[in-house]
Amino acid sequence: MLERSPLAIVIPCYNEAATLRDVIKGCAASGDVFVIDDGSTDGSSIMAREEGAILVETGGRTGYDRVIERGLREAFSLGYRWVVTIDADGEHDPTLVAHYARLFRETDTQLILGIRPAPQRLAEWVVCFYCRWRFGIHDILCGMKGYSRDVLERYFADGRPNLVNTWPALLWAATGASFGEIQVTGRRRLDKPRFSSRYRANVAIMKMLGPISVLRKKRHKTGA
């Protein structure tokens, strides 16, 4: 029996058949691939199985935050040492997962954050600027992130919502703990995002500033 990889790769998916196969192939050599399918109707789930990914189905449309949450909890419960999240649309180069894996293996880094060439929405610019100023995180909204079990354990114990795949990282950085960052490249998406409209995404992102600012205040009070 083959030994299981210590790294799980979580891919949130909703109707990404055009790009999903290449993303799975690109990162499969670095760890065990989990495709969290949120009720796709374009054959994405079939494609995931064909490519040997571990398919987890939500049973319907639940939204990006819950899809990521499901993937993180699935990997954590199965005992993986590290988890990398990557989008299914090709905007993150899947071969970069190997760099995340190498940094985890060769250093004591517990959190690895991607940095895109530039944020895509006005709200993203605002939130990223705030988190860079307050926490030193250059691109908190990049969906390609690497978490250790320690980071996820702290996040699950906190019990608050994921907030666009940012809260595990913010909780960790708010304690003053160190983290690594990797430049992330890929193909810019040309069609409509699957998980949210542009307007709803901007509103959801701007609403993050409230919880994030409270987290920053708590950090000051604890002296972190």
In short:
By secondary structure, this protein is α/β, with parallel strands linked by helices. Helix content is 42%, strand content 15%.
Structural write-up:
This protein is α/β, with parallel strands linked by helices. The protein has one domain: Alpha-Beta Complex (Spore Coat Polysaccharide Biosynthesis Protein SpsA, Chain A), CATH 3.90.550. Helix content is 42%, strand content 15%. It has helices spanning 20-27, 44-50, 64-77, 97-106, 122-135, 149-158, 167-174, 198-207, 209-222, and strands at 7-13, 32-37, 54-57, 82-85, 111-115, 145-148, 180-183. Strands 3-2-1-4-6-5-7 form a 7-stranded mixed sheet, sandwiched between helices. Helix 5 (122-135) runs parallel beside helix 8. The protein is globular and about 45 Å long.
Keywords:
224 residues; alpha/beta; seven-stranded mixed β-sheet; disordered C terminus
Which geometry do the CA atoms define?
Answer: globular
For the largest beta-sheet, the strand count, sense and barrel status come to:
7 strands, mixed
Distance between the termini: 45 Å
**Count of folded domains:** 1
Arithmetic mean of pLDDT: 90
- In the CATH scheme, what's the topology name? Spore Coat Polysaccharide Biosynthesis Protein SpsA, Chain A
Number of strands: 7
- SS element count, helices: 9
* Portion in helices: 40-55%
Q: How do the strands of the widest beta sheet line up side by side?
A: 3-2-1-4-6-5-7
Give the class from helix and strand content and strand pairing.
Answer: alpha/beta
> What letter string, H or E per element, gives the SSE order?
EHEHEHEHEHEHHEHH
